[in-house]
Amino acid sequence: MNWSRREKVTLGGLSLAIALYLGFARANTIPRLTDKPEPAIINLNEATVEMLEKKSIPRSIAEEIVRFRKLNGPYRSYDDLHRVPNITGSVIQELRQCARL
In CATH, what number is assigned to the domain containing residue 84? Predict the structure, then answer.
């Protein structure tokens, strides 16, 4: 077949679009150059509510953790977390796995 330049460009663009769609459809997201990977271990004395939520800590508990830290200063040990209102032992165990002091 003798394709015109316009048809070749159109076909090439369409092929690229399909390849990109199929590649990104699985990930359900388009990576951005400005996105930074989340650290595997977060610092509990610097963590925001959003960072704690990404580590599967419920928002209400994350807010208490941050509020307690602002009122009482940095956490010195994981035992300090027992003084945070509404926190359970299972949450403290989860934090031991994903956060450092």
Answer: 1.10.150.320
